[in-house]
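Pasting as-is:
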Amino acid sequence: MSILNKLAPGEVDAIAAIAKRARNLFDNIDAITIMILVTEVHRRMPLRLQDLAEADDFNFSHDVAGIAQHWDRISEEMQDCFRPRFTA
């Protein structure tokens, strides 16, 4: 079962908006990777997804780039004491 199937419809829309925005802001990250990473993080560490999707560029970039850099897919934990600003 896809991890997206476990999300509420509004959460899927917010994650898609985050991924689309990240694709436009960052050259080295693709939208699918961001969708997967944000979904994995949200599953383990709930995020205020809509707030993140609507954040100013500085705070948005902090969280999305930080998630991409510090999320360990094997342990499913944040590394290096990183904590997204839009954690619930």
